[in-house]
Specification:
Number of strands: 12
Number of helices: 30
Structural class: alpha/beta
Strand content: 5-15%
Helix content: 40-55%
């Protein structure tokens, strides 16, 4: 009986995409997110290498071996993550010894093995069924789209560690469908192993670390890994993704206590709240509710507690922290909001008297795939414009951060100048909190007075200067004060004199956490690796360059190995075509996810919606690739990419005030037309190369890693707009390569003029295949260079 090849491809793609999202969530939380980017981006190369092995060793791609390859894929999926956690990989000590570097290489090999065997399965299916490539590729993309939803559902329902093992189940189903005879029993032990590992997932997928206090509870879903620490009887803490911390204060719910019994706060904004008869207070990233508690204690009349992680709000309203905090989130004055803070602010013009932000960011990547570097839209120039417009005429913004303050000051000045605010420097002050190792930014809608500056966070005196003092406009140590220099000269003039990147982050270049500069790169071993960005070492850029170097120096040359064999060869134009569309597709996908995250907010659900819309529309494009001409397909891609780069940002700005569901629908509608056309280039190229598609798929896979990582480096330096424009240029190059059909040498003459044939060459060739199914219109020797 003929194998259900479309179902097998869909199941395999579903599992591998879901696996990528789940592994991204695990490794970005348990390891520093830049190292998750490194390990998983390199692991993704396994897909192309697996396909290449089919070209070098054709027997691997035989239908009789498909069930075994799928079983190996599932086995590697189950074994990879726990083995990585068991080898003692410590990225903080990565350069301490060759042994640690060897462990890194081993981790990449372990994780890439699942993609390697999956690549073998894909390449064999594509090679043996190349005539049906549009439908096969459609099944691949549809499966990937469903995999996005599966990943979110599994992480939320079963926990992220458990999902990492159960994601192998669709592959095992595919293995049973593909296997023959007794081979159908091979996946059964793996099925049992998946269920056993699922039971111990939490312990197996946990990096060894010294905890800050006793861990009372742990929850891990698609959005975050949340820990509750029990410090004392009256003080607990929340930790998100082992990076972002939020205090939780014990409270008995009694607001009638004497003033002397009020809880003190290290950053006290009661003075600002008291300036309003009826203060409307907004907490950006409410976390464990200390901001809300302070606002309630200070007498705010209305408090908006905005938090992007749903489980945190659940803890504070009905969960384990509700009673501990005196059920303050159920107070009539509190409005609990589960949404991205930036998206929420944009919907409220001239609404808030005090906007308060206390380290409102996490460095862990969301579930947007392995090519994610935790971009942040809370600290961009456009964000300050939104905050300004959300404040009332007498309102204040208080924003704290440990590292970003020079960048924030530059971004704020740019924002106020863009708004046309006279004398921007009179509207803000910067404070230093030495004991907390924090900086504070105070922004006022009206020019600040000395009285406000000196009392905003408690009275400033010489006696408490070791706790808090002004850094701008009257610094305690005026010499070499970076904030005074930025105000006086502009950040551009100051940039070369400071060790970190102080260029303001923008919505087009939101990489606020990437503070390293190439001039700080040194070959000698640094003292520490974790956190080097905040001291100016370009850690993220170095990691991206390492990935690019591995692909260019090691992987791409491997894709030329079949040229040394005696078998058929992929022409240079075809090699270049599959390379170009692979790099361009992944680059565009990564940028689209990040750009539309600004519109819908960086929740796992909104990102999933964007990726789902893109993949489903790509699947539709693949299905209809034979009825759309080459020119129309590529013109559609290039035109929409240029619209995306230079025009659609104005559309998304106009839609920013909508609520979440309409914003998600709008994002899907804007992504779908581009996706429809982006689904066509791969099956169009496949119809020219016939069973050499396994080689084309290998080149495409290697180039995808190159494009997905290279575009991050490009966006860090020049922004998303430039990245999309170059993506359009790459697709133009691909179209020109496709037009050189004479060098692809199909077995039968193929018309090259669309005007002569009433359709493109590929479509005409496909018509001949469809009209005579038994005829080898595209033979194994098609496109050969002898």
């Amino acid at each position: 009986m003929k194998q259900p090849r479309f179902v097998i491809i869909a199941l395999l793609s579903l599992a591998l995409l879901a696996q990528e999202l789940i592994w991204t969530r695990i490794f970005s939380a348990e390891f520093f997110y830049t190292y998750a980017f490194l390990v998983l981006s390199l692991a993704m190369m396994g897909l192309g290498l697996g396909a290449l092995s089919v070209r070098l060793f054709p027997s691997l791609g035989r239908p009789c071996h498909l069930g075994l390859m799928l079983s190996l894929t599932a086995g590697a999926t189950l074994a990879g993550p726990p083995l990585v956690f068991s080898i003692g990989l410590d990225f903080a000590k990565l350069l301490d010894s060759w042994s640690m570097i060897a462990r890194l290489v081993l981790a990449v090999i372990l994780l890439s093995s699942a993609y390697f065997f999956g690549g073998v399965a894909f390449a064999g299916l594509f090679r043996n069924n190349h005539r049906d490539m549009p439908k096969l590729y459609m099944a691949d993309l549809l499966g990937a789209g469903i995999g996005v939803l599966l990943a979110i559902v599994m992480m939320n329902r079963l926990g992220t560690p458990g999902a990492a093992f159960l994601v192998a189940l669709p592959i095992l189903v595919a293995a049973i469908l593909a296997a023959r005879g007794w081979g159908k029993l091979v996946p059964l032990p793996l099925l049992i192993a998946a269920l056993v590992l699922f039971g111990d997932a939490g312990e197996l997928l946990k990096a060894e670390r010294k905890e800050r206090a006793k861990v009372i509870d742990t929850h891990w879903d698609a959005m975050a890994k949340v820990k509750i620490f029990g410090f004392t009887e009256y003080y607990r803490g929340l930790e998100i993704d082992n990076a972002a911390n939020s205090p939780v204060l014990g409270f008995d719910g009694d607001w009638d206590r004497p003033d002397r019994e009020e809880v003190p706060f290290d950053i006290d904004v009661s003075y600002l709240i008291d300036r309003f008869e009826s203060c409307r207070f907004l907490s950006l990233g409410a976390g464990g509710g200390s901001d809300v508690f302070q606002a309630l204690q200070a007498g705010a009349s209305e408090i908006h507690a905005v938090e992007v992680v749903p489980y945190v709000n659940e803890l504070m309203t009905t969960g384990a922290l509700a009673d501990f905090t005196g059920r303050i989130y159920l107070d009539d004055r509190v409005r609990v909001v589960t949404e991205d803070a930036r998206a929420y602010v944009r919907r409220h013009k001239n609404q808030f008297d005090v906007i308060y932000s206390l380290s409102s960011n996490s460095w862990a990547a969301l579930a947007s795939g392995s090519f994610a570097l935790a971009e942040n839209y809370l600290f961009t120039t456009e964000a300050f414009i939104d905050y300004w417009e959300a404040l009332t005429d007498d309102g204040f913004l208080s924003m704290e951060h440990q590292f970003y303050m020079p960048r924030l000051v530059g971004a704020l000045i740019d924002a106020l100048e863009e708004l046309g605010v006279p004398d921007p420097q009179t509207h803000f002050a910067v404070y230093d909190l030495p004991m907390l190792r924090r900086k504070l930014l105070l922004l006022s809608k009206r020019p600040l007075t000395d009285e406000i500056r000196n009392n905003a966070y408690g009275k400033l005196t010489p006696y408490n200067s070791d706790k808090i003092h002004l850094e701008y406009p009257t610094p305690k140590n005026p010499r070499d004060n970076v904030f005074k220099q930025i105000v006086a000269k502009g950040w551009e003039e100051v940039a070369d004199s400071v060790p970190v990147n102080i260029s303001p982050a923008t919505d087009d270049r939101p990489f606020v956490g990437q503070m390293g500069l190439w001039r700080n790169f040194k070959w000698e071993k640094p003292r520490m690796l974790l956190g080097l960005e905040v001291f100016g070492f370009p850690l993220s850029k170095v990691i991206v360059v390492i990935i690019l170097g591995v692909v260019v120096v090691l992987v791409l040359p491997l894709t030329l190995l079949p040229c040394l064999t005696h078998g058929p060869r992929l022409p240079a134009t075809a090699w270049g075509y599959f390379f170009t569309i692979g790099a361009a597709f992944m680059a565009v996908e990564v940028v689209l996810i990040q750009k539309y995250t600004l519109l819908v907010g960086p929740s796992a659900y909104s990102i999933a919606a964007i990726l789902l819309a893109l993949l489903i529309s790509c699947a539709a494009g693949s299905r209809f690739s034979r009825v759309v001409s080459d020119g129309a397909a590529f013109i559609g891609i290039i035109a929409w990419l240029l619209l995306e780069a230079f025009a659609l940002s104005h559309v998304t700005e106009a839609l920013a005030s909508l609520t979440m569901l309409p914003r998600i629908a709008a994002a899907a509608a804007l992504v779908a037309p581009l996706g429809f056309f982006m689904g066509m280039p791969f099956p169009k190229g496949a119809c020219y190369v016939g069973d050499l598609i396994d080689w084309g798929f290998a080149v495409n896979g290697a180039a995808s890693v190159l494009g997905g990582t290279g575009v991050v480096l490009l966006a860090m330096e020049y922004g998303f707009q430039m990245a999309l424009a170059l993506g359009a240029g790459a697709y133009l190059v691909a179209y020109l390569l496709l037009r050189i059909v004479g060098r692809w040498r199909p077995t039968e003459p193929v018309p090259t003029s669309f005007a002569e044939t009433g359709g493109d060459a590929c479509s005409r060739l496909s018509e001949r295949v469809l009209s005579d199914p038994d005829r080898e219109a595209v033979l194994p020797t098609s496109g050969l260079v002898r």
